[in-house]
Amino acid sequence: MTWQKKIDDALAARRSADALRRRYPVTLGAGRWLQADGCQYLNFSSNDYLGLSHHPQIICAWQQGAERFGVGSGGSGHVSGYSIAHQALEEELAQWLGYSRALLFISGFAANQAVIAALMEKDDRIVADRLSHASLLEAASLSPATLRRFSHNDSQHLARLLATPCPGQQLVVTEGVFSMDGDSAPLAEIHAMAQQHNAWLLVDDAHGIGVTGEEGRGSCWQQQVKPELLVVTFGKGFGVSGAAILCSDSVADYLLQFARHLIYSTSMPPAQAQALRASLAVIRSHEGDERRAKLAMLIQRFRAGINTRSLTLANSDSAIQPLIVGDNQHALRLADTLRQQGCWVTAIRPPTVPVGTARLRLTLTQAHETQDIDRLLEVLNGAG
């Protein structure tokens, strides 16, 4: 088999399964509206849950940061790319979330890859929720440690896997709010099981941070759990991009020595760190409380109005509201029908989700208005 045939066969298999991914160039992709090909759509595919991507204070902070620091960091944080803006953001994040240290990463994917690669060795075991994000499961698969998956949100199954003898250390991995299902992990139960078996817990709270809990402190704070490793990302509730790992002093020092994604990557621009500090200030303020309250109201309105006799709505109280369709082709047709009626939604298909669970991943944001939700319901209930 030649290289070209290998590539052609893989693409043909995706096409035949109606699973071929494609990108759409958009003029505007975050916030209430999506603009593409000269048309405007109500946007139900954005992770900008609090509508902060266009917040004037955050935009101004980035602009002023660029004027002061330039548009790039100039290098790895271990060389010349760790600025006072990065340091200030790390300190503010650590104080906000109750940890000794925070370390910034260019993306959530990089943060998850970095911490798992740096910590895990051959005799160790990773026990991960089987619906954990691809970045977590890929990092676990590529590490020298053994990977075991427990049934989704099943703390008893987790306990049985942890009880199996392991010559090394054990790391439990889960999300706070699951990116494709929108449901929340029972973090208190999971943490108790991990502690019982002397395991550490890693929680990726990409879809909870900023959106849930007091001052938007996320899923762990809301459930009164403090995992040894907390990953938060800034492309959702914060409305920007990037990520951080919250941990102890010793773990932070260890990662600074051994986390290759941190050591060998150019750090985020200092201007971005300034924008993130501004975003954090909004999230922690009274305005942040108001934005979270409005989002919760919109979620409740949507769930109360959907016709579940013809559409299968996942059990989610988060901004992620998946409609499970099942068949790939049906999901694509339904997404196309909604777009034709002015609502931009995305069909999510295997391998992103399990076979037979293709879905429309609807996301609601604070930027939406009640009439937007009512329009989505009108179109969905008619299509269903």
Short characterization:
With 384 residues, this protein is of the alpha/beta class. It is built from 14 helices and 14 strands. It folds into 2 domains: 24-49 and 286-383, Alpha-Beta Complex (Aspartate Aminotransferase, domain 1), CATH 3.90.1150.10; 65-284, Type I PLP-dependent aspartate aminotransferase-like (Major domain) (Aspartate Aminotransferase, domain 2, 3-Layer(aba) Sandwich), CATH 3.40.640.10.
Helix-strand layout with pairing:
Blueprint: H1 3-16, E1 33-36, E2 39-43, H2 56-69, H3 84-97, E3 101-105, H4 108-119, E4 125-129, H5 134-142, E5 146-150, H6 155-163, E6 170-175, H7 187-196, E7 200-204, H8 219-222, E8 229-233, E9 243-247, H9 249-258, H10 260-263, H11 270-284, H12 286-305, E10 312-313, E11 320-326, H13 328-340, E12 343-344, E13 347-348, E14 358-363, H14 370-383
Parallel strand pairs: 2-12, 4-5, 4-6, 6-7, 7-8
Antiparallel strand pairs: 1-2, 3-9, 8-9, 10-11, 11-14, 13-14
Helix pairs in contact: 2-11, 3-11, 4-5, 6-7, 12-14
